[in-house]
Amino acid sequence: MSLKSSIKTVLTLGQGVVAGIPEAADDANPFELFQAWFEAARESGIFEPNAMALATSTADGRPSVRMVLLKEVDERGFVFFTNYESRKAAEIEANPHVALVLHWSVLERQIRVTGPVVRISPEESFAYFSSRGRGSRIGAWASTQSRPLPDRTELEARVAEMKDRFPDGDIPLPPFWGGYRVEPETIEFWQGKADRLHDRLVFERVDGAWNSHRLYP
Protein backbone atom coordinates (compact mmCIF):
# COMPACT_ATOMS: atom_id res chain seq x y z
CA MET A 1 0.00 0.00 0.00
CA SER A 2 1.39 3.46 -0.91
CA LEU A 3 1.95 6.20 1.69
CA LYS A 4 -0.94 8.16 0.17
CA SER A 5 -3.24 5.13 0.45
CA SER A 6 -2.10 4.51 4.02
CA ILE A 7 -2.93 8.08 5.00
CA LYS A 8 -6.36 7.83 3.33
CA THR A 9 -7.01 4.58 5.17
CA VAL A 10 -6.14 6.13 8.54
CA LEU A 11 -8.35 9.15 7.82
CA THR A 12 -11.19 6.77 6.96
CA LEU A 13 -11.12 5.04 10.35
CA GLY A 14 -14.48 5.33 12.08
CA GLN A 15 -16.41 6.64 9.07
CA GLY A 16 -19.95 5.33 9.24
CA VAL A 17 -19.59 4.19 12.85
CA VAL A 18 -21.02 7.43 14.21
CA ALA A 19 -23.66 8.04 11.56
CA GLY A 20 -24.64 4.41 10.99
CA ILE A 21 -27.04 3.49 8.19
CA PRO A 22 -29.58 6.35 7.87
CA GLU A 23 -33.29 5.56 7.91
CA ALA A 24 -33.62 6.88 4.36
CA ALA A 25 -31.53 3.93 3.16
CA ASP A 26 -34.44 1.60 3.90
CA ASP A 27 -36.15 2.83 0.74
CA ALA A 28 -33.01 2.95 -1.39
CA ASN A 29 -32.12 0.78 -4.35
CA PRO A 30 -29.71 -1.80 -2.87
CA PHE A 31 -27.45 -1.62 -5.92
CA GLU A 32 -27.15 2.16 -5.59
CA LEU A 33 -26.33 1.73 -1.90
CA PHE A 34 -23.79 -0.97 -2.81
CA GLN A 35 -22.11 1.35 -5.31
CA ALA A 36 -21.91 4.12 -2.72
CA TRP A 37 -20.31 1.79 -0.16
CA PHE A 38 -18.00 0.27 -2.75
CA GLU A 39 -16.84 3.71 -3.88
CA ALA A 40 -16.16 4.66 -0.24
CA ALA A 41 -14.07 1.49 0.10
CA ARG A 42 -12.12 2.34 -3.05
CA GLU A 43 -11.49 5.90 -1.89
CA SER A 44 -10.33 4.70 1.53
CA GLY A 45 -7.19 3.20 0.02
CA ILE A 46 -8.04 -0.40 0.95
CA PHE A 47 -6.03 -2.89 -1.12
CA GLU A 48 -8.35 -4.78 -3.51
CA PRO A 49 -11.68 -3.51 -2.16
CA ASN A 50 -13.34 -5.87 -4.66
CA ALA A 51 -12.05 -8.97 -2.83
CA MET A 52 -14.95 -11.09 -1.60
CA ALA A 53 -15.50 -14.45 0.03
CA LEU A 54 -17.47 -16.89 -2.11
CA ALA A 55 -19.16 -19.77 -0.27
CA THR A 56 -20.37 -22.80 -2.21
CA SER A 57 -21.40 -26.29 -1.19
CA THR A 58 -21.65 -29.74 -2.66
CA ALA A 59 -24.97 -31.35 -3.53
CA ASP A 60 -25.01 -32.99 -0.09
CA GLY A 61 -24.34 -29.70 1.71
CA ARG A 62 -20.59 -29.81 2.42
CA PRO A 63 -19.46 -26.16 2.33
CA SER A 64 -16.27 -24.53 1.11
CA VAL A 65 -15.21 -20.91 0.84
CA ARG A 66 -12.48 -18.95 -0.90
CA MET A 67 -11.65 -15.38 -1.91
CA VAL A 68 -12.46 -14.19 -5.43
CA LEU A 69 -12.53 -10.78 -7.08
CA LEU A 70 -15.72 -8.92 -7.96
CA LYS A 71 -15.27 -7.74 -11.54
CA GLU A 72 -18.70 -6.42 -12.52
CA VAL A 73 -21.88 -5.41 -10.74
CA ASP A 74 -25.17 -4.06 -12.03
CA GLU A 75 -28.88 -4.63 -11.46
CA ARG A 76 -28.48 -8.20 -12.73
CA GLY A 77 -25.99 -9.17 -10.04
CA PHE A 78 -22.36 -9.70 -9.06
CA VAL A 79 -19.84 -11.18 -11.53
CA PHE A 80 -16.62 -13.10 -10.89
CA PHE A 81 -14.47 -15.24 -13.19
CA THR A 82 -12.94 -18.68 -12.82
CA ASN A 83 -12.03 -21.95 -14.48
CA TYR A 84 -15.25 -23.87 -15.21
CA GLU A 85 -13.46 -27.12 -14.27
CA SER A 86 -12.36 -25.90 -10.82
CA ARG A 87 -13.72 -27.14 -7.50
CA LYS A 88 -15.86 -24.05 -7.03
CA ALA A 89 -17.36 -24.49 -10.48
CA ALA A 90 -18.12 -28.17 -9.85
CA GLU A 91 -19.91 -27.26 -6.63
CA ILE A 92 -21.82 -24.47 -8.37
CA GLU A 93 -22.99 -26.88 -11.05
CA ALA A 94 -24.12 -29.34 -8.36
CA ASN A 95 -25.72 -26.72 -6.12
CA PRO A 96 -26.21 -23.29 -7.74
CA HIS A 97 -26.99 -21.45 -4.49
CA VAL A 98 -24.08 -19.41 -3.12
CA ALA A 99 -23.20 -16.66 -0.67
CA LEU A 100 -20.83 -13.69 -0.95
CA VAL A 101 -19.27 -11.43 1.66
CA LEU A 102 -17.34 -8.22 1.07
CA HIS A 103 -15.65 -7.01 4.27
CA TRP A 104 -13.96 -3.64 4.72
CA SER A 105 -12.60 -3.66 8.25
CA VAL A 106 -11.27 -0.11 8.22
CA LEU A 107 -14.80 1.12 7.49
CA GLU A 108 -16.37 -1.44 9.84
CA ARG A 109 -18.63 -2.48 6.99
CA GLN A 110 -19.58 -5.71 5.30
CA ILE A 111 -22.07 -6.65 2.60
CA ARG A 112 -23.57 -10.13 2.46
CA VAL A 113 -25.26 -11.52 -0.65
CA THR A 114 -27.14 -14.78 -1.21
CA GLY A 115 -28.74 -16.14 -4.35
CA PRO A 116 -28.45 -18.48 -7.32
CA VAL A 117 -25.53 -18.24 -9.71
CA VAL A 118 -25.51 -18.58 -13.51
CA ARG A 119 -22.86 -18.51 -16.20
CA ILE A 120 -22.57 -15.28 -18.14
CA SER A 121 -22.43 -15.37 -21.94
CA PRO A 122 -19.20 -16.32 -23.76
CA GLU A 123 -19.24 -12.84 -25.31
CA GLU A 124 -19.22 -11.21 -21.86
CA SER A 125 -16.48 -13.55 -20.69
CA PHE A 126 -14.38 -12.82 -23.77
CA ALA A 127 -14.73 -9.07 -23.26
CA TYR A 128 -13.25 -9.36 -19.77
CA PHE A 129 -10.68 -12.00 -20.74
CA SER A 130 -9.36 -9.73 -23.49
CA SER A 131 -8.79 -6.95 -20.95
CA ARG A 132 -6.44 -9.10 -18.83
CA GLY A 133 -2.68 -9.00 -19.15
CA ARG A 134 -1.02 -11.50 -21.47
CA GLY A 135 0.45 -13.43 -18.55
CA SER A 136 -2.95 -13.88 -16.92
CA ARG A 137 -4.47 -15.07 -20.20
CA ILE A 138 -1.65 -17.57 -20.70
CA GLY A 139 -2.09 -18.69 -17.10
CA ALA A 140 -5.78 -19.38 -17.64
CA TRP A 141 -4.89 -21.76 -20.47
CA ALA A 142 -2.01 -23.39 -18.57
CA SER A 143 -3.72 -24.11 -15.24
CA THR A 144 -5.92 -27.15 -14.75
CA GLN A 145 -7.31 -25.45 -11.68
CA SER A 146 -7.93 -27.43 -8.48
CA ARG A 147 -6.28 -30.59 -9.83
CA PRO A 148 -3.20 -32.11 -8.12
CA LEU A 149 0.13 -30.58 -9.18
CA PRO A 150 3.01 -33.05 -8.67
CA ASP A 151 5.72 -30.45 -9.18
CA ARG A 152 5.90 -26.71 -9.91
CA THR A 153 8.02 -27.42 -12.97
CA GLU A 154 5.00 -29.10 -14.57
CA LEU A 155 3.06 -25.85 -14.35
CA GLU A 156 6.02 -23.88 -15.69
CA ALA A 157 6.26 -26.31 -18.60
CA ARG A 158 2.58 -25.86 -19.38
CA VAL A 159 3.02 -22.07 -19.31
CA ALA A 160 5.94 -22.35 -21.74
CA GLU A 161 3.85 -24.62 -23.97
CA MET A 162 1.02 -22.08 -24.08
CA LYS A 163 3.41 -19.23 -24.84
CA ASP A 164 4.60 -21.22 -27.86
CA ARG A 165 1.01 -22.06 -28.82
CA PHE A 166 -0.03 -18.39 -28.67
CA PRO A 167 3.09 -16.43 -29.69
CA ASP A 168 1.18 -13.27 -30.56
CA GLY A 169 -1.09 -11.03 -28.51
CA ASP A 170 -4.30 -12.62 -29.81
CA ILE A 171 -5.19 -15.28 -27.25
CA PRO A 172 -8.64 -16.90 -27.54
CA LEU A 173 -10.98 -17.42 -24.62
CA PRO A 174 -10.46 -20.92 -23.16
CA PRO A 175 -13.63 -22.98 -23.54
CA PHE A 176 -13.29 -23.97 -19.87
CA TRP A 177 -12.97 -20.44 -18.48
CA GLY A 178 -15.42 -17.61 -17.93
CA GLY A 179 -17.70 -15.69 -15.63
CA TYR A 180 -20.51 -16.40 -13.21
CA ARG A 181 -23.17 -13.96 -12.10
CA VAL A 182 -24.68 -14.20 -8.64
CA GLU A 183 -28.31 -13.10 -8.95
CA PRO A 184 -29.08 -11.79 -5.46
CA GLU A 185 -32.14 -12.79 -3.53
CA THR A 186 -30.91 -11.02 -0.39
CA ILE A 187 -28.37 -8.23 0.17
CA GLU A 188 -27.47 -7.27 3.73
CA PHE A 189 -25.59 -4.10 4.64
CA TRP A 190 -23.77 -4.30 7.99
CA GLN A 191 -22.33 -1.22 9.64
CA GLY A 192 -20.29 -1.56 12.82
CA LYS A 193 -21.32 0.66 15.74
CA ALA A 194 -20.11 1.33 19.28
CA ASP A 195 -20.77 -1.30 21.95
CA ARG A 196 -21.39 -3.84 19.15
CA LEU A 197 -24.87 -2.37 18.60
CA HIS A 198 -24.38 -2.63 14.87
CA ASP A 199 -26.73 -1.50 12.10
CA ARG A 200 -28.04 -4.27 9.83
CA LEU A 201 -30.23 -3.49 6.82
CA VAL A 202 -31.49 -6.38 4.66
CA PHE A 203 -33.03 -6.17 1.20
CA GLU A 204 -35.02 -9.16 -0.09
CA ARG A 205 -36.19 -9.56 -3.67
CA VAL A 206 -39.88 -10.49 -3.79
CA ASP A 207 -41.65 -10.82 -7.17
CA GLY A 208 -38.98 -8.68 -8.81
CA ALA A 209 -39.18 -5.88 -6.23
CA TRP A 210 -36.95 -5.15 -3.25
CA ASN A 211 -38.33 -5.13 0.29
CA SER A 212 -36.19 -4.04 3.23
CA HIS A 213 -36.11 -4.55 6.97
CA ARG A 214 -33.72 -4.08 9.88
CA LEU A 215 -32.20 -6.83 12.04
CA TYR A 216 -31.02 -6.85 15.63
CA PRO A 217 -27.20 -6.82 15.76
Quaternary structure annotation: single chain
How many domains, as an integer?
1
Strand runs, count = 10
Largest sheet: 10 strands, antiparallel
CATH domain fold name: Pnp Oxidase, Chain A
Unreliable stretches (pLDDT < 50, length at least 5) are 1-14
Which CATH class? Answer: Mainly Beta
Rg over CA atoms, rounded to whole Å, is 20 Å
CATH H-tier superfamily:
Electron Transport, Fmn-binding Protein, Chain A
The helicity comes to 25-40%
Please report which band the strand proportion falls in: under 5%, 5-15%, 15-25%, 25-35%, 35-45% or over 45%: 25-35%
Distance between the termini: 32 Å
User: Secondary-structure element sequence?
Assistant: HHEEEEHEEHHHEEEE
Mean pLDDT: 92
Based on CA inertia axes, which overall geometry fits? Answer: elongated
What is the helix tally? 6
| CATH architecture label name | Roll
Helix-and-strand structural type = alpha+beta
What does this structure look like?
By secondary structure, the chain is α+β, with helices and mostly antiparallel strands. It has one domain (3-124, 175-214): Roll (Pnp Oxidase, Chain A), CATH 2.30.110.10. It is 30% helix and 32% strand. It has helices at residues 3-12, 30-43, 87-94, 122-131, 134-142, 152-165; strands at residues 51-57, 63-69, 72-74, 77-83, 97-104, 109-119, 177-182, 186-191, 199-206, 209-214. Strands 1, 2, 3, 4, 5, 6, 7, 8, 9 and 10 form a 10-stranded antiparallel beta sheet that branches. Strand 5 (97-104) and strand 6 (109-119) form a beta hairpin. Helix 5 (134-142) packs across helix 6.
